[in-house]
Amino acid sequence: MKVAVLGCGAWGTSLARLFALKGNEVVMYGHLGKGHEDINTIHKNTPVFPDVTLPNNLTFSDDLSFAVADSDILLFSIPSKSYRDLSRIVNPLLKKRVHIISTAKGFDPTSFERLSLVLKEELNPNMIYPIVTLIGPSYAAEVIQDLVTCVTAVSEEEKEAKFVQKELSGPTFRVYTNTDVIGSECSSALKNVLAIGAGMLIGLGEGENARAALVTRGLTEMVRFGIAMGGKKSTFYGLTGIGDLLLTCNSMKSRNFSIGYQIGQSNNAFEVLKSNKTTVEGVYTSKYATMVAKKLKIDMPIVNSIYQILFESAIPSVTLSSLMARELKAE
């Protein structure tokens, strides 16, 4: 099969390698001049994994038409903010029915829709199979090293989720399936917000007690939100829920945790966000989640507090004190 991976970041590269190791022809699409073209010469994506040699059947192209042409699988591994624009460009290039895999964790910044819905809206339904979202606790840097990782292929059509499961699973990469798209996409997006909060706590000098409390109470907020949106409660206790939450709230490998840590250390979000050049999905997800929570009257004090720090100039240390001073109640 031919697999087109749209995006040359760490996660896209790790998944592209897995597909290539299974004997597929894999083409990664990205912008020329950023070092990704080294994939074709020295078989390395030097900007993200300079020490990893990639399979010979994995190549790079800056020609989207070429990458998409005759592809059997199209994998979106780009920031959520780019989903709609790129899918609109891809749509007329589709000449045969293709399998679609989405890997970003967030929401559309304009419509605030889940990303699988964005792809559904922009891609010709006659040219695509049911969309599969691939999510779960997974650092690309560990996947590229063949360290054991478990994720979930989520689709409304179980048959399609099983297709992706079969094509990607290997000795160190295990794929489960799930049909609760709403719950999975909501939980995988919201955990980024809570990871920012966890990073803030550690940056402020708080300890593991505080982090454990945030993760536990934050999970409660995730469940409230997901059920209100139509998700299943059980989903939040699986890989796309608590699994992803535990991973991102406990490591500097997480961009969301890392940016939160910097904010906590400076006790101010403005300057940190101003100088940040990386994609941190949890920032705008906090805005979306707070907006929806207010509309649907969902009690989400932690997520709302993180939003206030990120967008309303609230001071992290003061906000933490306010959370601790809330009215006492049963768990």
Explain what the structure shows:
With 331 residues, this protein is of the alpha/beta class. 49% of the residues lie in helices and 11% in strands. The chain has 15 helices and eight strands. It has an eight-stranded mixed beta sheet with strand order 3-2-1-4-5-6-7-8, sandwiched between helices. Helix 8 (181-203) packs parallel to helix 10, helix 8 packs across helix 13 (281-296) and helix 13 (281-296) packs across helix 14. It is globular and about 60 Å long.
Strand order of the largest sheet: 3-2-1-4-5-6-7-8
Distance between the termini: 52 Å
Percent strand equals 5-15%
For the largest beta-sheet, the strand count, sense and barrel status come to:
8 strands, mixed
Approximate shape: globular
Can you count the beta strands? 8
Structural class: alpha/beta
Order of helices and strands: EHEHEHEHEHEHEHEHHHHHHHH
Question: What labels describe this entry?
Answer:
single chain; 331 residues; alpha/beta; Rossmann fold; N-(1-d-carboxylethyl)-l-norvaline Dehydrogenase, domain 2; 2 domains; eight-stranded mixed β-sheet; 11% strand; globular
